[in-house]
Amino acid sequence: MSTLKRAKRTAFVDTSLCVACGCCKRVCPMNAISINKGIFALVNPEKCVGCGKCAKECPASVITIKENNYEN
Ligand code: SF4
Ligand code: SF4
Fold it and tell me: Which long-range contacts does 40-46 make (Cβ < 8 Å, 24+ apart)?
């Protein structure tokens, strides 16, 4: 295989269950989360490094960290 792939972990929010409390946004070291129109949290995948801090902090447990494969 000549195609190189690198794994990247990214946070995903179940927006239907998010209560827009902002806890995830406060703890994110990459400033990757915004609260979209005060309704749900939105993760910027370009900034997210998959550290998982937001998922630990979320009181509603609606954030999961998933592995992605991007082709270089
Ligand atoms: S996984 Fe880490 S970098 Fe990504 S949104 Fe959550 S706190 Fe921010
Ligand atoms: S901590 Fe959880 S419930 Fe609160 S805004 Fe973030 S994703 Fe939504």
Answer: 40/13, 40/15, 41/13, 41/15, 42/13, 42/15, 43/10, 43/11, 43/12, 43/13, 45/10
